[in-house]
Amino acid sequence: MNMRIVILRLGHRIQRDQRITTHVALTARALGAEGMLLDSDDAGIEKSLDEVKNRWGGSFYVRRITSWKSEIKKWKEAGGKVMHLTMYGLNLPDAIDEITTCSLMIVVGAEKVPPEVYELADWNVAVGNQPHSEVAALAIVLDRLNASSGKDSLSSRFTGGEIEIIPCRKGKEVKSK
């Protein structure tokens, strides 16, 4: 199954969350998401990911939005499903078999997530029911989703870009395209 995955980064605070939000986007890109919706007017995140895309390839996008609620509703009206990553949700192994859609929005919160998100989500999913990094949770979820659909997200190749890493046991090898 070819899963379509978009990340909704919710509650990004420009001064506080820039590094973590960038890491959420980089993780999403590396592990197969098509893009990220950002509910903030932080052009820096968009610029950083455009630079990564130009240098390393791929087609990942960051799009700034004004209403997370309308984005979720539009997604669902188009037939998509919504997964909210939260430590209060069902543990991932208990939910993964049910999450087999071709159109999935994954909500990754930064600050306290509004209670309405818990109701709008089709699944509230936890990677363990303990506090930890949203970047780690997203990486595990994307890897498990890809594995359940027969895709190996750890060996993805990106087209375009200026450079490519050549895997090697020792040292570093980077090829200019």
Using brief descriptors, characterize the structure shown.
single chain; 177 residues; alpha/beta; Alpha/beta knot; six-stranded parallel sheet; two-stranded antiparallel ribbon; 6 helices; 37% helix
C-alpha termini separation: 31 Å
Q: Number of helical segments?
A: 6
| Residues in helices, as a percent range | 25-40%
User: Which strand-content bin applies to the residues?
Assistant: 15-25%
Total of domains:
1
Known CATH architecture: 3-Layer(aba) Sandwich
Description:
Its EC number is 2.1.1.206. It is found in: Cytoplasm. One of its GO terms (cellular component) is cytoplasm. 37% of the residues lie in helices and 24% in strands. The chain has one domain: Alpha/beta knot (3-Layer(aba) Sandwich). By secondary structure, the chain is of the alpha/beta class. The mean pLDDT is 90. A hairpin with an 8-residue loop joins β7 (163-165) and β8 (174-176).
